[in-house]
Design brief:
The complex is a heterotetramer. Chain A is mostly helical. Chain A has one domain (2-132, 192-281). Chain A is 73% helix and 1% strand. Chain A is built from twelve helices and one strand; from the N terminus they run ααβαααααααααα. In chain A, α2 packs antiparallel against α10 (218-243). Chain A is globular. Chain B folds into two domains: 3-539, no CATH class; 630-671. Chain B has helices spanning 3-23, 28-55, 78-106, 112-130, 134-152, 159-190, 195-200, 205-223, 232-238, 241-268, 274-296, 301-328, 332-367, 378-381, 383-396, 403-416, 424-456, 463-466, 473-491, 493-508, 514-518, 536-556, 581-584, 586-591, 593-596, 625-646, 653-671; strands at residues 59-67, 70-76, 561-563, 599-606, 613-621. In chain B, strands 1-2 form a two-stranded antiparallel sheet. In chain B, strands 4-5 form a two-stranded antiparallel sheet. In chain B, α1 (3-23) packs antiparallel against α4. The relative contact order of chain B is 0.08. A two-stranded antiparallel sheet of chain C has the order 1-2. In chain C, α13 (326-357) packs antiparallel against α18 (451-465). The longest helix of chain C is centred in the middle third of the chain and has 36 residues, at 151-186. The radius of gyration of chain C is 21 Å and the shape is globular. Chain D is mainly alpha-helical. Chain D has one domain (4-212). Helix content of chain D is 77%, strand content 0%. Chain D has helices spanning 4-27, 31-57, 60-87, 99-116, 129-148, 152-174, 179-207. In chain D, α1 packs parallel to α5 (129-148). The chains are: A mainly alpha, B mainly alpha, C mainly alpha, D mainly alpha. Chains in contact: A-B, B-C, B-D, C-D.
Chain lengths: 315, 672, 487, 219
């Protein structure tokens, strides 16, 4: 039973820390660009402000437009709750495995796109069209890259997968390398970071995600923003705990949990540092290059699986 | 009352409906009500029969008709039972829907042919599921084809519908012939038309493979698997919507049933070669991805749905293929998993595709068009239809917590839990097909965002759409039933699976791991707890929980302001500024341009100078790749051949005599 | 006089009477009555044969066994329904001035004469007389085909006359050859041409001669069956003659010719034990099937279209009898029955369609179901039936034929499937636009008599749903007989 | 009753004559000559059957001999000649293929016929392989004639000569068919001839020529 409590706690942790994470990245980038940057609490302030504001709706926005943010947030939050953060054995991972995880994110995306189409502005359509197109490539890529692990683990259950990685020890496997590369590329695309999309810009012709939520304001916007922040943290955690899960707590004793938490935070910091470095260093690519980029990711993932089946299973 | 008698009741109810359709042609009103009521009865009876077939031991009955030395054998077993169940569920909904739908349709034209052939169509499908000898099977199979042909050409004034009908019947006939060939092989081996004898028959590997290929192509043609799907996207849209629902929902599943009956049951997987499953897998993957890719490029609502049927048949085929492979390398429980996944997806697809086609019918009636370019903003004029249609879209996009996700999840499990197989070809093939499955799923989401977004959201693109009327109560009920089932099947799969599990038990004497059914009702664990599990109910709960918490916020700051959307400072937005269907799928068209080979043209007129544009018109047309590279060549060749033959019949009389003379000489020449 | 004489005498007498008064309006009634009488007689005879087995008359000059008595009753039935159909049809033709009263007299007389020829051919026990009967039928129909006296009709009749004349002559040569060997086995008299006797002594006949003889018989009777490449007369004759004649040509004459061929085949098989005869028939059958199937696509005239379909189906039957296993023979006989029924029904419908549209050009026949639902649906149902969709009998026979073929000669099945599908496509691509679509403006009103059509289709349907026991026994005995059991 | 050898020689001689006449018919350019040869063929038939009747002692063959003489020797040629005169087509026969080629083909056919009838074992004392071979050859030759002639009337002559060939076979190879058959056949031929006559005028009326190429149905 208390495992369920742990799980709840972790969910709350993820949801709660999400804005902080984003702020962290912003800060790193600012520093790298010799700016002072916002304070770490800035994104909390933004959210609070947005929640306080009265939302403005387009006059013929339908109920879907109003429902969407809740679905988006709920789905993302649930997805976050699935991923083991500190403790490996999580009851919710049994309720929803990686496939469900991907599907939940897809659900969120589905509704984002619908909401974008709802008002009937050109931007909404454009954003939705692009988002769904990219998703069509990134989603299978993500699935495939995770499957590499789950095939090795003979399970699609996240806890089980992490367990196997921990116990089998990371021998240098080509399949894992492929998978990791693919997953990183996908994560960048999914969280709408440079070089795929630029969360900071509203430069009309290059927007993808921003174009979809252009019509949103007030608490609706807040929810969606928050959901995105959760998504970022989620992907980061997923990457870390799937491919280098060391330090993660195998039992719920206080010591190991503290170690795990520390390790997690440390790894996160490093990862975000890398990310912001990467983002300041890279430029955004042309919108029509993105499919090739994602296609590459998909290809890598498939290669990962094939190499697993052909090279590793046999031996 | 035994299952068999329920089944016969279903048949006779449909038969009565057929008679009613003929006799009451004078009074359309009673005709409509009676036929629909009888169809509903037939559906209920079929439902009961299906359950009985799944739960109880097989029952048999012989009718003294058919061939003189072969009475018509009917047998109700688990396999037939399951598909009867599917039929019952969707037919019931459709019957209710038809009450309202046909009332509106009847105001325009005489529906008697519809009332005559719809019951026949149903009889055909039920009969196929019950048949226990090759003759009976073929009779009902062909009856199904013919009846549905007359339904497809129901509005025969339209050129396209006639063409579609012709292509459909032609391919149906070809398919029937191929299946017949398959049965003939089994007959030659078993020495009798009865299925028992055919099961017992031992075939040489060559003959077995031939029979398999014949059955594969015959049933594949009906099911609309990728290379043989050409009739489907034309025929399904041509039929009235309630019929399209049945065709897409059930008829192509009947083809899957036939596939199972013939290959899994009669030929028997113990005679299978390793490449059989591989072939099915490849075709499945092709159909899944190809179908949805072409669905994305359609701008006519019902055509999109038709093409997406091709995709879903592909997914089903993937499940079947996996099952066959595992069965061949005898991992029985995995084979069972593949089969169950396929069957479950058949059930689910019947539900949401039926729902979507009925929705399309409602749109057709409400806005008098299925052309996406003419629609838009319907969600405001017909909110209930929109809500139901949305459920269909989510389910078909395989998103939790609806049913589509469950069956795809099962299929993924089957593909992923594959142990390493001998022969790297297969072990490479299986993950590849999994990848195709994932791709298809993602593309489906894109496709149905497009559909829903263009048709129901945004602002109306035509006056007709602006004046759209909400569907009447009967139609709403008809759509509500499958919608509800979509959710239920998504949340309580653990209740459905034990039922379905009877089928693999009967077919390959294997079932899912005990965990699948022994487990608590809210857990779905096909193989073992530690391997994979999914609890839709918890997911739903969590979603609701998270949702509720924020609904609280919603009501705390309840008030909101409405204003017109931001239009980049442009004075007023008009509907023509929205993204169109063609525009939505443009990026994909660009990515897969080699596959689509789109023919687009830009018509522009200006006031004397290129910058002073008067009007721009962009047209793009994507034609089915196979149509151009497979079907047209065949057509051309046969035309050429007929021309050559025609030469024979335009000779002078000497020529004719010469034919006789030469023939005589040749015959005598044989004696030399 | 006994029943049997009645069977032969009625059409002959009726023919002579009609030859005198055939132009009177009443003539049609006599025509129908005579056919009805023969039908009754035929049925009674059939019953007798079923009860008491084979039956010979006039010291073996005539005989009835399971095989031909069934064809006799089929012939009688179709002759009757056709007579019923032709009454209003020909009246309409007369009304629009295509035929004069004089011609009508000729028509009625020749119709009965033709029927007489059929019965003679079916019941005679003498190969020579069989030949004469077929020649007689040919001559009678030649005059009927040229009834309209249009250039096309004359040309068609001439073609029919010459091509069939030559063919039939070759058949005679074959018969003479048989006689030449049988006469020194059985002595120089009628016995040497009597089928039953020959059948009994088939062993002793000289194989070499019998083989050559069969070659000639094959080509000769094959011409009348309409087997490719001797089929060239058939489309014209069907296309240009009056519709009732097209119906009986397809429904009866072809059957009888095939009957003759099969009779001879059994003899030849008895003499030479290599299955050459069967193989030849299979070859011709497949060739006819394929060529006709392809030719169907190119037709413009509705009656020509269906005549090609007749060629296709004769090909199927020839194939069936060529295979010669009991199952195949069963399929062949069944197919003979249902094809005669359905095809003559279709010709009735096509005739009506041509009348209401005032043309036989298919490109001008449109939207029948809209303005004449009876005709339109009749045409559709008929086509669906003839294409071999259940629940019509054609499906049953096709089903059996396919299985039988695969049982013995698997390689034929490929061609068979190909041919059937091509034929269906060729037929349906023309029929669908005629039945469906928007009708043209001007449409004649004709008194349409669809009753015979419905009767025919009804029977075909019945045979498809359930073959009655006595008929099944009948077929099976006949099938066994053809395979070489004692008559 | 003389020994069969004699009869056999006679029959063979007759057969040879038959073949010769066939070639003669094949070689004719003029209608009148054609008909003369045709008549001669009829007479030959009559002779043959009379001969067989006398030697083999088959009385009913006298009947058929008489029939042949009347029908094939006199009536038919006369009828045809009348028609020819009435229609004024007594000019060239206008072959499609030129005569010499036709003759060569004919020779080839005769050879073929002989080869075909090689496997036939001896049937009886009077019917030899040669008789059948010649009969076969005659049939083939007359068909060749039908194919290579353009005018309807020449075709009819060819057709009738085909009938003659059959008749000859019947007499020579089998001492004639049973009487029923004989009469039936003769009757048929008569009707056929009448119908021919009927047709000529209709064809003439509708196509104002007997040139068969007018009869092709225009597609």
């Amino acid at each position: 039973m208390n495992l369920w409590l742990w799980n709840l706690a972790e969910a709350v942790l993820m949801v709660g820390l999400a804005p902080l994470a984003t702020a962290l990245v912003k800060l790193f980038k600012a520093r790298l660009q010799n700016r002072r940057g916002p304070s770490l609490l800035q994104s909390y302030r933004d959210l609070a402000k947005l929640f306080a504001k009265q939302p403005v709706l387009a006059e013929h926005a339908s109920w879907i437009f109003r429902l969407a943010p809740y679905v988006i947030f709920a789905a993302t939050a649930l997805a976050a709750a699935i991923v083991p953060v500190i403790l490996v054995a999580m009851p919710l991972t049994a309720a929803a495995d990686v496939i469900a995880l991907v599907a939940l994110l897809a659900l969120a995306r589905f509704f984002t796109a619908l909401a974008a189409m709802d008002v009937g502005t050109a931007f909404g359509g454009m954003g939705a069209s692009r988002e769904m197109t990219f998703a069509a490539l990134s989603e299978p890529a993500m699935l495939m890259s995770i499957f590499v692990l789950s095939i090795a683990a003979h399970s699609t259950n996240l806890s089980a997968m992490i367990d196997t990685v921990l116990n089998s020890g990371l021998g240098l496997r080509p399949s894992l390398a492929f998978a990791l590369a693919a997953l990183v590329m996908v994560a960048i695309a999914e969280t709408g970071r440079i070089p795929v999309d630029n969360p900071a810009t509203h430069l009309e012709l290059t927007m993808v995600h921003e174009a979809m939520i252009l019509e949103y304001s007030g608490r609706y916007l807040a929810l969606i923003e928050w959901a995105n922040q959760i998504k970022l943290l989620l992907f980061a955690t997923l990457l870390l705990n799937l491919f280098l899960p060391w330090g993660i707590a195998q039992d719920s004793s206080l010591v190991s949990v503290l170690i795990a938490a520390g390790a997690w935070l440390l790894k996160l910091l490093l990862l975000f540092a890398l990310l912001s470095l990467f983002e300041t260093w890279m430029a955004k690519m042309r919108i029509f290059r993105v499919p090739e980029y994602l296609g590459l990711a998909f290809l890598l993932a498939i290669l990962g699986i094939l190499s697993h089946y052909i090279l590793e299973v046999g031996v | 009352m035994s299952g068999m008698s329920w089944a016969l009741a279903a048949l006779s109810a449909a038969l009565t409906a057929f008679l009613a359709g003929i006799l009451l042609s004078a009074t359309p009103k009673h005709q409509r009500r009676l036929v629909c009521a009888l169809l509903l009865l037939s559906a209920l009876a079929a439902l009961a029969a299906g359950l009985a077939g799944l739960l109880s031991a097989p029952g048999e009955v012989r009718l003294p008709i058919g061939l003189p030395w072969l009475a018509m054998h009917f047998r109700l077993d688990a396999l037939g039972g399951f598909f009867l169940l599917v039929l019952g569920l969707l037919l019931g909904a459709t019957a209710l829907y038809s009450v309202g739908y046909l009332r509106q349709l009847g105001s325009q034209r005489n529906l008697t042919p519809l009332y005559i052939f719809l019951p026949l169509f149903v009889i055909g499908m039920q009969g196929v599921m019950l048949a226990d000898d090759a003759y009976t099977f073929m009779v009902f199979w062909e009856l199904m084809s013919v009846a549905s042909y007359f339904l497809v050409t129901f509005e025969h004034e339209q050129d396209g519908h006639r063409k579609a009908g012709f292509l459909y019947l032609l391919m149906a006939h070809l398919g029937g012939m191929l299946i017949l060939g398959g049965f003939a092989i089994l007959y030659a081996a078993g020495g009798s038309f009865e299925f028992d004898a055919m099961r017992a028959a031992a075939l040489t590997p060559l003959w077995a493979s031939l029979a398999f290929l014949l059955a594969m192509s015959g049933f594949g043609m009906k099911a609309g698997m990728m290379p043989l799907h050409a009739w489907l996207p034309d025929a399904h849209p041509a039929a009235p919507s309630n019929v399209s629902a049945l065709m897409s929902g059930i008829m192509i599943k009947v083809a899957i049933f036939g596939f199972l009956r013939m290959i899994w049951d009669l030929i028997g997987l113990q005679q299978a070669h390793w490449w059989w499953g591989g072939l099915v897998l490849v075709i499945g993957s092709t159909s899944a991805v190809g179908g949805i890719l072409f669905a994305l490029q359609q701008n006519e609502l019902k055509r999109v749905l038709a093409y997406s049927s091709v995709e879903n048949i592909g997914i089903i085929a993937i499940g079947l293929g996996l099952g066959m492979i595992f069965a061949h390398y005898n991992y029985p429980s995995l084979a069972a998993l593949g089969l169950v996944a396929a069957l479950y997806h058949s059930l689910n697809h019947a539900m949401f595709k039926g729902l979507l086609f009925m929705g399309a019918g409602a749109v057709m009636h409400g806005a008098h068009s299925c052309d996406m370019g003419q629609l838009g903003g319907l969600i405001r004029r017909m909110p209930r239809t929109a809500a139901l249609f949305l459920i269909g879209c989510i389910s078909i996009s395989a998103l939790p917590p609806f049913n589509g996700f469950v069956s795809e999840w099962l299929t993924f499990q089957a593909a992923l839990m594959a142990p390493q197989l001998q022969g790297t070809l297969l072990s490479a093939l299986i993950p590849f097909s999994a990848a195709m499955l994932a791709l298809a799923g993602a593309l489906a989401a894109a496709c149905f965002v497009k559909v829903f977004g263009i048709v129901f959201q945004g602002t109306p693109r035509s006056p007709a759409a602006a004046e759209a009327r909400e569907a009447n109560a009967w139609m709403q009920i008809g759509m509500a039933i499958p919608a509800a089932l979509c959710l239920l099947l998504g949340i309580f799969p653990a209740w459905m699976l034990p039922l379905i599990d009877a089928v693999p038990k009967a077919l390959i004497h294997a079932e899912l791991g005990a965990s699948a059914t022994g487990n608590a009702w809210l857990w779905l664990t096909p193989i073992a707890q530690e391997r994979a599990s999914y609890s839709p109910l918890i997911v739903l709960m969590a979603l609701l929980l998270a949702g509720c918490t924020f609904l609280v916020i919603h009501y705390r700051y309840g008030k909101k302001r409405r204003t017109e959307p931001w239009s980049c400072g442009h004075p007023h937005l008009n509907p023509r500024m929205q993204y169109t269907a063609a525009a939505f799928s443009q990026p994909l068209r660009r990515i897969f341009s080699d596959l689509y080979q789109p023919q687009d043209k830009l018509l522009r007129s200006d006031h004397g100078h290129t910058l002073l544009v008067k009007r721009l018109r962009y047209q793009v047309h994507v034609q089915d790749l196979l149509w151009r590279h497979l079907y047209l060549p065949v057509k051309r060749f046969s035309e050429w051949l007929t021309q050559r033959i025609d030469w024979l019949h335009h000779r002078p009389i000497h020529g004719y005599l010469a034919f006789t003379f030469v023939t005589l000489l040749l015959l005598l020449g044989l004696l030399l | 006089m006994n029943l049997f004489d009645l069977l032969l005498a009625t059409p002959l007498i009726a023919g002579t009477i009609l030859g005198v008064i055939g132009h009177r309006p009443r003539a049609t009634i006599l025509n129908i009555a005579a056919s009805a009488v023969t039908l009754a007689t035929a049925l009674v005879l059939a019953y007798q044969v079923l009860e008491h087995g084979p039956y010979t008359a006039h010291d073996q000059a005539f005989f009835l066994d399971a095989y031909n008595v069934f064809l006799v009753s089929l012939t009688a039935f179709i002759a009757t329904t056709t007579a019923i159909f032709s009454a209003p049809y020909m009246r309409h033709e007369q009304a629009i001035g295509r035929v004069t009263a004089e011609r009508l007299r000729l028509y009625h007389a020749m119709y009965q004469l033709f029927i007489f020829g059929m019965y003679l051919g079916l019941t005679t026990n003498n190969l020579g007389v069989l030949w004469i009967a077929l020649e007689l039928a040919t001559l009678a129909t030649v005059l009927l085909v040229s009834l309209y006296r249009t250039p096309a009709a004359i040309a068609a009749a001439w073609k029919y006359f010459i091509v069939c004349g030559v063919g039939i002559a070759l058949a005679l040569f074959g018969t003479i050859l048989i006689f030449s060997t049988s006469s020194d086995v059985l002595g120089h008299d009628n016995a040497a041409l009597t089928w039953t006797v020959l059948y009994a002594h088939a062993e002793q006949l000289a194989p070499g001669v019998m083989t050559i003889a069969f070659m000639f018989l094959m080509v000769g009777y094959g011409t009348k069956i309409g087997l490719v490449p001797m089929h060239t007369w058939l489309p014209d004759a069907h296309g240009e003659g009056p519709t009732p004649i097209s119906a009986v040509l397809s429904g009866l004459l072809l059957n009888v010719a095939l009957y003759a061929l099969v009779r001879c085949k059994t003899l030849v098989d008895g003499a030479t034990h290599d299955g050459l005869a069967g193989k030849l028939m299979m070859g011709f059958g497949l060739l006819s099937l394929l060529v006709a199937a392809l030719a169907l696509h190119r037709q413009r005239d509705i009656k020509r279209l269906f005549s090609f379909s007749s060629i296709e189906h004769m090909g199927l039957m020839t194939l069936a009898f060529g295979i010669g296993t009991p199952l195949a023979n069963f399929a062949g006989l069944l197919h003979m029955t249902v094809h005669s029924l359905v095809k003559s029904g279709i010709f009735f419908t096509a005739g009506h369609a041509a009348q209401v549209m005032g043309t036989q050009q298919m490109s001008n026949i449109r939207g029948l179901v809209r303005h004449h639902p009876g005709i339109g649906w009749g045409l559709l149902i008929g086509t669906v039936a003839i294409a071999g969709f259940p629940p019509f009998g054609v499906f049953t026979s096709k089903f059996l034929l396919l299985t039988a073929a695969l049982h013995t000669h698997p390689w034929t099945v490929v061609l068979l499937l190909l041919g059937l599908v091509l034929a269906f496509a060729g037929l349906f691509r023309h029929v669908q636009p005629m039945a469906f679509g928007i009708p043209p403006e001007q449409v004649h009103v004709a008194r349409v008599n669809m009753l015979p059509v419905y009767i025919h289709f009804g029977l075909a349907l019945w045979l498809g749903l359930a073959i009655p026991g006595f008929l099944a026994d009948w077929y099976q005995t006949a099938a066994a007989l053809l395979q070489g059991a004692a008559p | 009753m003389t020994q069969p050898g004699l009869l056999q020689q006679w029959v063979v001689v007759a057969a040879a004559a038959m073949l010769l006449i066939m070639f003669a018919l094949l070689a004719q350019r003029h209608m009148r000559a054609l008909l003369r040869w045709f008549a001669l063929q009829g007479v030959l038939l009559a002779l043959t059957s009379a001969l067989v009747a006398f030697v083999a002692g088959v009385p009913e063959l006298y009947v058929s001999a008489l029939l042949a003489l009347l029908l094939k020797g006199l009536v038919l040629p006369w009828l045809l000649w009348r028609i020819v005169l009435r229609l004024g087509v007594h000019r060239e026969v206008e072959p499609l293929v030129n005569i010499s080629v036709t003759l060569l083909l004919g020779a080839a056919l005769v050879l073929f016929a002989f080869y075909v009838s090689l496997p036939i074992e001896k049937l009886s004392q009077l019917v030899t392989r040669n008789i059948i071979a010649i009969a076969l050859a005659c049939v083939l030759l007359s068909m060749l004639m039908m194919i290579t002639r353009r005018k309807a009337i020449t075709q009819v002559v060819a057709f009738l000569s085909l009938e003659n060939a059959l008749f000859f076979t019947a007499t020579a190879a089998t001492n004639g068919m049973p009487l029923v058959v004989e009469i039936g056949v003769a009757f048929d031929v008569l009707i056929a001839a009448l119908i021919f006559g009927l047709f000529f005028f209709q064809i003439r009326r509708t196509f104002d020529s007997l040139d068969l190429e007018h009869l092709e149905e225009k597609p």
